[in-house]
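Lab manual, section 2.4: Encoding a predicted structure.

Procedure: take the sequence of the chain (87 residues), apply the prediction step described in section 2.3, and record the output as structure tokens. A sample record is shown.
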Amino acid sequence: MLKPHLPSKFHEKTKRYVTENWGIPFIVGFMILLFSSAVLLAGGLVSTAENTATFAYFALVIGVVLQLLSLSKIRRRKQGAALHGSG
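Recorded output:
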């Protein structure tokens, strides 16, 4: 049987994950845009599909850069905690 607070726990964990991983919204946006580009291409809208794919890859680049920055921040925080905790 499911616990009644499952959606709020899921929402809380998701919010914390997105807060810690800054690039996630852009990477998800990339996937949505790339899928949209494929649908547009299948519909014969080649120019629109190409433009959508271009925006998708820009979103991916931004997402990866933000992920690297957030990973760097997390590592610095963990190293700082280890230094302060050991002395």
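Check your result against the sample. The longest helix spans residues 46-86.
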